[in-house]
Amino acid sequence: MTRVVQSVKYLLLHQLEIVSHKTLHQTGLLLLHGLHGVLMVIFSLLYHLSKTGCQVFGIDQFTPPHTHGSSHGQSRIIRQAYHENPLYVPLIKEAYNLWYEIEKTAGKKLFLKTGGIMLGNEDSPVIMGAKLSAEIHNIPFEYLNSSSIKERFPALRTPADTVGVLEKEAGILFPELCIKTYLEEAQKNGALMHYDEHAIRVVPNDTFIEIITDKNTYYTSKLIVSAGAWLNKLIPDLPLPLTIERQVLYWFNITNAKLKQYFMPDRLPIYIWEYLHGKSFYGFPDLGDGIKIAFHHGGDSVTPGMLTPAVTEH
């Protein structure tokens, strides 16, 4: 954790040199990205680096926001009582501050607070982990039994042995609007972006790093790579056991007008429900296109560039 933070501070505080074989006057930081689950993270980095006065230069093999990653579509969950590990919570709390900051700077609504409820048996990892994170980091929460859950949130029909950890600060980010906002604000600060440019190879040397794309060649002393599914192909020397999983999402329209009210953002929080030990699904209230539900991990393994929108029973 400390090494990562120190590295980011170093990148933020130093002018980095980038030259191409065509231009020698540009200074900044080169970012490479493509299909990956942290598309919003890398554009957040682009924006925050642009605020330091460092000239920032980014490359994307597509035109963002695009459908080749995990940061497109209507909604993404954000929560503080992170059941995966309490170590994430300080990072998430700071992320909330940064979201409020860019909302104010850009004058756009990027975050909708709905609250969030983690569901499962009392000894399930989701419940125990969320409760632990909340207690360690003083996150206000309510611990609800099944009857209280059904009374508070009629859309959730929980079995008798299901309990819930309800936190008030959780909610929904609008990912494509977030990405557009990051790019707009970064460009206002002087950041440059090249779209539809494909990085072919990264060659580190003793004094610089060479980046070869399908349109140009660049040299830099510092480089941030966020190539996601293409990382093993772009930098094959990295011994990373990466697996790409296809995640299928589902939308359901509520046709009963009387019941529909229970699925609106003011009546239904975002939720993660551990229905079997180690197996979970998550969901959102209706934002206008029906309720969205998906399994949390466990998709089929795929290769980059081979994704298909076709859905099968398997």
Q: What labels would you give this structure?
A:
single chain, alpha+beta, FAD/NAD(P)-binding domain, D-Amino Acid Oxidase, Chain A, domain 2, seven-stranded mixed sheet, four-stranded antiparallel sheet, 8 helices, 20 strands, 26% helix
Question: What would you say about this model in short?
Answer:
The protein is α+β, with helices and mostly antiparallel strands. The chain is built from eight helices and 20 strands.
Task: Give an overview in words.
With 314 residues, the chain is an alpha+beta fold. It folds into 2 domains: 2-71 and 175-234, FAD/NAD(P)-binding domain (3-Layer(bba) Sandwich), CATH 3.50.50.60; 76-173 and 243-302, D-Amino Acid Oxidase, subunit A, domain 2 (D-Amino Acid Oxidase, Chain A, domain 2, 2-Layer Sandwich). Helices cover 26% and strands 26% of the residues. The chain is built from 8 helices and 20 strands. A 7-stranded mixed sheet has the order 7-8-6-17-18-19-16. Strands 1-13-12-11 form a 4-stranded antiparallel sheet, with no helix packed on it. A 4-stranded parallel sheet has the order 10-3-2-14, with helices on one face. α2 runs parallel beside α6. The protein starts with a helix and ends in a 12-residue tail after the last strand.
